[in-house]
UniProtKB/TrEMBL annotation, chain A:
Residues 575-593 have a biased composition (Basic and acidic residues). Composed of a catalytic GlpA/B dimer and of membrane bound GlpC. NCBIfam families: glycerol3P_GlpA (TIGR03377), PRK11101.1 (NF008313). Keywords: Cell membrane, FAD, Flavoprotein, Membrane, Oxidoreductase. It comes from Haloferax litoreum. It is a peripheral membrane protein. Residues 7-364 form the FAD dependent oxidoreductase domain. This is Glycerol-3-phosphate dehydrogenase. The lineage of its organism: Archaea, Methanobacteriati, Methanobacteriota, Stenosarchaea group, Halobacteria.
TrEMBL record, chain B:
Keywords: 4Fe-4S, Iron, Iron-sulfur, Metal-binding, Repeat. Residues 1-20 are annotated as: Disordered. It comes from the Archaea. PROSITE patterns: 4FE4S_FER_1, 4FE4S_FER_2. This is Anaerobic glycerol-3-phosphate dehydrogenase subunit C. It comes from Haloferax litoreum. Residues 1-16 have a biased composition (Polar residues).
TrEMBL record, chain C:
Its EC number is 1.1.5.3. It comes from the Archaea. Pfam families: FAD_binding_2 (PF00890). It comes from Haloferax litoreum. GO terms for molecular function: glycerol-3-phosphate dehydrogenase (quinone) activity. One of its GO terms (cellular component) is glycerol-3-phosphate dehydrogenase (FAD) complex. InterPro entries: FAD-dep_OxRdtase_2_FAD-bd, FAD-oxidoreductase_2, FAD/NAD-bd_sf, G3P_DH_GlpB_su. The keyword Acetylation does not apply. This is Glycerol-3-phosphate dehydrogenase subunit GlpB. Keywords: Flavoprotein, FMN, Oxidoreductase. It is an enzyme of class 1 (oxidoreductase). Residues 6-404 form the FAD-dependent oxidoreductase 2 FAD-binding domain. The gene is glpB. Gene3D superfamilies: FAD/NAD(P)-binding domain.
Length: 593, 436, 422
């Protein structure tokens, strides 16, 4: 039997994992490398909207049509990643009627079900909408969890024989005889040792074909191969609310603009966004005014947002692309379509294709087209099946039962667990006993944490994105160390500590953008808890200073009565200040008076 | 025939209020409140959990933080499933008192419980029927007190108690409170209503069910004290404050009663009346739960003008000087602050005041919950837990100098009596003895 | 008629209690006006005075290090005498339920994160488990209690270089609760020594742990060993195990913090301090630079409290004595000036355990602990501040939170009491 052709996919976002799954299902030998976690780049930094296409119904109808098609596909194959919230395009009195009509017409032209609601009807759907809104268009927008989606794609790829390497950065593209033949990756050497690959080692991975699915980073990988990929990275801010003020996606019905969408996502709402071109997808300013803009502008639609608690903000970088010479000035005008750049026909460099542009909702369709392209290159004749075969976790997802009784979980905890785990709930939730809740804010149990560790290794950030543990209102104040504890006894204490530090720092980064009001109180409590109560900042195990334990109070004020605990106290006692308290009681009141 | 009392504006009193009075559509059905934003205040400090007397003894109860902000935050609008453990909450509201951050815990609990009872509880189940009966103590009492001696004899009969336990799930361990031979309202009518008239000092008395049917002496004391300070006291027609209904998730019943109470009391406010309650659960209900749970015209106004009796005098009179100059025969009390009094910041006032009263020795028996929490301790399956919760209080009472108990809350007083055999007095009774 | 006293202490935590006790010592008639339960319930129950300065290691003697504190540190206002006075009031209030008063030296206590930290006073239940004493240690955790992982903590202690061997085990609690039972339930079951198969909770727990022992001379548990009868629980376990038993302080929910709160309130009762609790002070009336009346929001209605002297001890950001929005940080009751950087991004450091400005937020005291305005003059003649609401100290990094509260509480309370009774 001939060996299957091998494909190396760079990038563990939705596109990369989607391609890996597609090709693996077609029987190819796939390796995916990702420099961080799955979803590390843009995918993990999106607003979680499952587009109906309504947003593009006026400006970009081809994208809109693709969206509604894929919207339906994802509901079918990724049920456990999708929440069909429905969406509203809300018109305020100052928003133009003309645009409203164009939006409605556009939706209809693109096959997007659209229905006009009066202000009263819209407020019945979402009671917290502003009292003075004019009307709204109802469309089938939804919410999608990009983390779960990628993890499920990767899991499916692995089931079909793929190898997934996270924390493995491509440090070179191997070109031999004018052809791309593979990549060199450096396995992670960061503060926490990870399970994939030996930390710090460099590995050359050869493949029959390489797919560059690194989105906003495509230009950098292109550079390594010596080709120009003109990505125009554009940043957008997203601000996360502590609770769901709305359960429907709420869009502002007006031509493109900043801060025009609220997406109910899991337990939160995500406010978005801005669109501003940046030089470097990893180094750009994250500024308070952007957060303020979200709150101030979107509270015109939902006034209670003004005073509501935000728990963090994050920025994502869109991998926008336009063919050389198009010359669009404003990034909001750049098309959201995706581009397949075959470097053989384009740059005379066979063996590699880059994919840029596009959006999460159509990731599967993009993956299908790339996979078709790769198969064609490799002479493989195989059909795409990703539109029909559900992702792991989404099989038979319609069979929802009374989970709380089955798993001895409180009903909201059981419900949330099942919403996250889908059809894997049984298998996962019965695997551990006792099964205490580790993250109370997001209702994540020990069983779910342990399950996620199987792919996360020691990377608690990966645990976080799979389970949502530490993503609730306390931002890990209460549960970060509990999550880390779950790494033991498989990993040693030093590893546990290093992983905890990584997670802690990651949480801090986003939380800093929300530090006022309730969240500043929360942060102060977190600080007191970790710094005062646990002394994690001055931890002698971490801080490089030896302690003279004998110089401290050993509790003995009365000879040897402090039992075995202080049997050595006489010699260990290094403090001259210690009073020879020989009175029977050692209470301070007796001593001091 | 009517025992209603509203001297300045008789039209305020709805006539012919029968028991099947239905609140009109002004308060249409809209109990599906979205309290998720309340979770914004929670920062997971767990002060509520360690204050919860039920969580201490009930392994199955996950505590107020879960029941409140966590469960609410995890909700999506259309989710119906409220965890059934909500029915183990006794509604003592100590979590409200504990939360340093203003999470509307009891409101969340009450609303979730209402939702649970509405949507998930079998309306034919023994539990539902029993809870409905307990929640509507006022109706029960009204019937019982028509023939108080007969009722007392029947309810005190151990066979009847066993039947109650077996059929209804009402514990046989407790003796039903005895009905007074003359209700407070009968007394009030007999004496001809208010004995003092005043344009400036006016209060409307919310006696609640218990002072009316079981301990009219508390109501009488309240009237005499206030009249001695020159207040005009009126006693509008009223229904149950709703406390036992909230605790059992019977929000529709509570809303009906609230509608009547708001209508009968709020109209008096512009006439210069403040509303006084002698039961701390009644004042709690009118002050906090009413505006939190119901949207009824005038309800905020009623809330803002409601006081507990002693509290009112402390703020409006120089009660402390009066007490300092008074004296009573030597007596010692073991005082228990009811949870609902604590919630209004009233837990210390009786001890603080009576410490100054010549002849009185009063000792606070600690800050534990009495364990009965209204109807909670009456439920057969909760009885043992109720007594476990109360055990600290019983201990402390037995170690206290006096062997008379004191509390403002009628059900706490049942529990105190049940656990120790002590006589229990209301602070107003001692105040009457001192001042009138 | 307002409710009238000499000194009104606004707040209900360790600073407020200390201020009230201190004021009561002057003979003043004192009222404590507490809102909800204090941050003591979230804290470990340890009383730190000063553990770290700058980037140095833990300080063995808190008093030695005072001079090196930044100039605007509240310890400079109250001085060493103030700190000692605060500790005296504390020691008298808690009696022999706390240890550490026999020496000026800090003890190193095992935390539930497995670290050690320097502290000046510790509950008696913690005393035999000090990391600054020797004796091999067994740490015991429970399967359902995710907060304390005894094996991880033990290894962490070893990594800290503690002068003894330490091992951790995870066992099943003798009584099977649902996994979300509260720690108060665990404590209560031990308190009442409930029966379980094979004996009682205490005896079965002791048997379980005894089977894990391997020559250790002390055994530590997360701080759930009883509530009302904690000493009895410890004694019995120690007796059955034949070695001392200690508790490892926990974060919230903290039974040790809860017990400390109870003791402080008992001390207030004993000192004749009046207590009004459950409702927040929200506003005030002032005349000629003096506060006459503090207004308390008693469920949508304001109740006036009058006093000659006021002590503000409402806590910091955690205790809600300080409030903030996107633009500013405020002291909400009396509107005292709270200096802070204009840009909210400067309120915190990019490093999680960095030097955060927010940690030092608070009112600026004059030399009598009166909060001052931007001009440096006191806002009110008769208003003093104590505890977390006072700025200038990064109490978390210094490990000085309780110490600052005790010292400022003692001094503010004494000055207020003296002034009121003059």
């Amino acid at each position: 039997m001939n060996k299957s052709p091998s494909v190396l996919v760079i990038g563990g976002g939705s596109t990369g994992t989607g391609i890996a799954r597609d090709l693996a299902m077609r029987g190819l030998d796939v390796t995916l490398v990702e420099k961080g976690n799955l979803t590390h780049g843009t995918t993990g930094r999106m607003h979680g909207l499952l587009h109906s296409g309504g947003r593009y119904a006026v400006s970009d109808q081809p994208s809109a049509r693709e969206c509604i098609v894929e919207n339906r596909v994802l509901r079918r194959i990724a049920g456990h990643c999708v929440e069909m919230t429905g969406g509203l395009f809300v018109q305020r009195p100052e928003d133009s009627d003309e645009y409203f009509e164009k939006k409605l017409e556009g939706c209809r032209e693109c096959g997007i079900p659209a229905e006009v609601l009066s202000a009263e009807e819209a407020r019945e759907v979402e009671p917290y909408l502003a009292k003075d809104i004019k009307r709204a268009i109802k469309v089938p927008d939804g919410a999608i969890d990009p983390f779960r989606l990628c993890v499920a794609n990767a899991a499916s790829a692995v089931e079909h024989g793929a190898r997934i390497e996270t924390h493995s950065e491509v440090t070179d593209v191997l070109v031999e005889d004018g052809e791309v033949v593979g990549v060199e990756v450096t396995h992670q050497t960061g503060s926490g040792p990870y399970v994939h690959g030996e930390p710090g080692t460099v590995e050359e991975i050869y493949a029959d074909y390489v797919v560059n699915a690194t989105g906003a980073w495509a230009g950098q990988v292109g550079d390594l191969a010596g080709v120009d990929v003109e990505v125009r990275p554009s940043k957008g801010v997203m601000t996360i609310m502590n609770t769901r003020q709305v359960d429907t996606v709420v869009n502002r019905c007006r031509p493109k603009g900043d801060a025009d969408i609220i997406v109910p996502h899991e337990t939160t709402c995500i406010l978005g966004t801005t669109d501003e071109e940046v030089e470097d997808p990893e180094d750009y300013p994250e500024e308070g005014w952007e957060v303020d803009l979200m709150i101030d502008t979107l509270s015109e639609l939902v006034p209670m947002l003004k005073e509501a608690r935000t728990i963090r903000s994050f920025w994502g970088v869109r991998p926008l692309y336009e063919p050389p010479g198009t010359g669009t000035e404003d990034p909001t005008d750049i098309t959201r379509e995706f581009f397949l750049l075959d470097h053989e026909s384009r740059d005379d460099l066979p063996g590699m294709t880059s994919i840029v542009g596009g959006k999460l909702t159509t990731y599967r369709m993009m993956a299908e087209k790339i996979s078709d392209h790769v198969c064609e290159k490799l002479g493989v004749d195989s059909e795409c099946r990703t539109a029909d075969v559900p992702l792991p976790g989404s099989e038979d997802f319609s069979v929802l039962r009374d989970y709380m009784d089955d798993f001895n979980l409180r009903s909201p905890i059981g419900r949330r667990s099942v919403q996250r785990l889908g059809s894997r709930a049984d298998e996962v939730l019965t695997s551990v006993d006792p099964n205490p809740v580790v993250c109370e804010c997001e209702a994540v149990t020990r069983a779910e944490i342990r399950d996620s560790l199987e792919t996360a290794g020691t990377d608690l950030n990966s645990v976080r994105i799979q389970t949502r543990a530490s993503m609730g209102n306390c931002q890990g104040a209460i549960c970060c160390h509990r999550m880390a504890n779950e790494l033991a006894p498989e990993y040693d204490e030093e590893t546990v500590r290093a992983s905890l530090d990584d997670l802690y720092q990651e949480r801090w980064k986003g939380e800093r953008h929300a530090m006022w009001g309730e969240q500043l109180s929360q942060t102060a409590l977190k600080h007191m808890l970790h710094v005062t109560t646990m002394n994690r900042d001055g931890d002698p195990a971490t801080v490089d200073k030896d302690i003279d334990f004998a110089a401290f109070d050993d509790g003995s004020s009365e000879g040897g009565d402090a039992a075995g605990a202080s049997s050595d106290s006489a010699v260990a006692d290094g403090g001259q200040k210690r009073r020879a308290a020989d009175d029977e009681h050692e209470g301070g009141a007796d001593g001091d008076n | 025939m009517s025992d209603a009392e509203s001297p300045t504006n008789p039209t305020l009193t709805p006539d012919a209020q029968t028991d099947d009075f239905e609140a009109v559509d002004v308060f249409a059905e809209s109990t599906d409140m979205d309290l998720r934003p309340g979770a914004d205040n929670c920062y997971k400090c767990t002060a509520c959990d360690v204050s919860c007397p039920v969580a201490e003894v009930d392994d199955e109860f996950p505590g107020p933080k879960f029941q409140g902000p966590e469960q609410w935050r995890l909700k999506r609008k259309d989710d119906a499933a409220v965890d059934d453990s909500i029915m183990s909450c006794s509604n003592c509201m100590r979590c409200d008192d504990a939360c340093p951050s203003g999470v509307p815990l009891s409101q969340m609990h009450n609303t979730a419980r209402g939702e649970y009872v509405d949507e998930e509880m079998d309306k034919l189940s023994r539990e539902y029927v029993r809870n409905r009966i307990l929640a509507n103590y006022g109706t029960l009492a009204q019937l019982g007190s028509m023939f108080p001696r007969l009722t007392n004899a029947v309810m005190g009969n151990s066979v009847v108690q066993q039947i109650n336990e077996k059929v209804l799930g009402i514990t046989a361990e407790r003796d039903f409170p005895e009905f007074a031979t003359q209700t407070f309202r009968e007394w009030w009518n007999e004496r001809g209503g208010p004995q003092v008239r005043s344009e400036e000092k006016r209060v409307a008395y919310f006696h609640g069910c218990y002072s009316n049917y079981n301990t009219p002496e508390v109501g009488k004391a309240m009237v005499r004290i206030f009249e001695s300070f020159g207040y005009e006291v009126v006693v509008p027609k009223q229904r149950c404050s709703g406390t036992p209904m909230f605790a059992n998730g019977m929000l529709d019943d509570a809303k009906r009663a609230a509608g009547i109470n708001v209508e009968n009391f709020s109209g008096l406010i512009p006439e210069g009346y403040d509303i006084i309650a002698s039961c701390t659960s009644c004042s709690m209900s009118l002050r906090q739960e009413y505006p939190e749970l119901f949207d009824i015209n005038g309800i905020e106004d009623l809330s803002a003008h409601t006081y507990e009796a002693l509290e009112y005098l402390r703020i409006h009179e120089d009660l402390e000087s009066e007490i300092r100059e008074a004296s009573v025969s030597d007596q010692s009390f073991a005082y228990h602050a009811p949870c609902h009094g604590r919630n209004q910041g009233l837990d210390r006032q009786a001890v603080e005041l009576f410490r100054e009263l010549d002849g009185v020795n009063i000792e606070d028996v600690g800050d534990s919950c009495s364990g009965i929490s209204g109807t909670y301790g009456w439920k057969e399956e909760k009885y043992d837990k109720s007594m476990q919760i109360g055990s600290d209080m019983f201990d402390h009472m037995e170690h206290a100098e006096g062997n008379v108990g004191m509390t403002e809350c009628p059900t706490c007083s049942m529990q105190m009596e049940h656990g120790t055999g002590y006589d229990i007095k209301h602070p107003l009774q001692l105040l009457e003895e001192a001042l009138v | 008629m307002a409710i009238t006293d000499d000194v009104l202490v606004v707040g209900g935590g360790i600073a407020a209690c200390t201020a009230a006790l201190s004021a009561a010592e002057t003979g003043a008639r004192v009222r404590l006006l507490a809102h909800k339960k204090s941050t003591l319930r979230q804290a470990s129950g340890l009383v730190d005075v000063l553990g770290y300065i700058g980037d140095g290691g833990p300080s063995a003697d808190p008093f030695d290090a005072l001079d090196s504190l930044p100039a605007d540190h509240p310890y400079h206002v109250v001085g060493e005498d103030g700190i000692r006075d605060g500790l005296r009031i504390f020691d008298e209030a808690v009696g022999d339920t706390y240890r550490g008063g026999h020496t000026d030296t800090n003890a190193l206590v095992v935390t539930y994160g497995g670290t050690v930290k320097p502290t000046a006073r510790y509950p008696a239940s913690v005393a035999t488990g000090l990391a600054s004493s020797t004796g091999d240690m067994l740490l015991v955790g429970f399967e359902g209690l995710t907060d304390f992982d005894a094996p991880v903590a033990a290894d962490h202690l070893t990594a800290s270089g503690v002068p003894f061997d330490v091992r951790g085990v995870t066992v099943r609690y003798p009584k099977s609760f649902r996994s979300d039972a509260k720690v108060t339930r665990f404590a209560k079951a031990l308190d009442r020594d409930e029966s379980v198969s094979g004996g009682t909770v205490r005896s079965v727990l002791a048997d379980t742990v005894a089977a894990e022992m391997d020559g250790q001379t002390r055994v530590g548990f997360p701080a759930i060993l009883g509530d009302d009868h904690d000493e009895e629980v410890r004694d019995e376990l120690a007796d059955r195990l034949g070695v001392p038993v200690f508790e490892v302080p926990t974060g919230p929910p903290s039974l040790l913090g809860l017990k400390l709160e109870d003791m402080l309130f008992d001390a207030l009762d004993d000192a004749g301090v009046r207590i009004s609790s459950g409702n927040p002070a929200v506003d005030f009336e002032a005349n000629d630079g003096r506060i006459d009346t503090v207004l308390v929001d008693q469920k949508s209605r304001l109740t006036p409290y009058e006093a000659d002297q006021i002590v503000l001890a409402t806590g910091g950001l955690v205790g809600k004595g300080l409030d903030s929005d996107r633009e500013q940080v405020t002291e909400p009751v009396f509107g005292c000036h709270v200096p802070h950087p204009e840009d909210r991004y400067e309120w915190s450091d990019p490093e999680a355990f960095g030097d955060h400005a927010f940690a030092r937020f608070g009112v600026v005291p004059d030399d009598e602990l009166r909060p001052t305005g931007e001009d440096g003059e006191p806002h009110f003649e008769n208003l003093r501040a104590a505890g977390g609401v006072v700025g200038g100290a990064d109490v978390a990094r210094e490990k000085s939170a309780s110490g600052v509260s005790l010292a400022t509480g003692a001094v503010a309370g004494r000055l207020a009491g003296e002034e009121a009774t003059q």
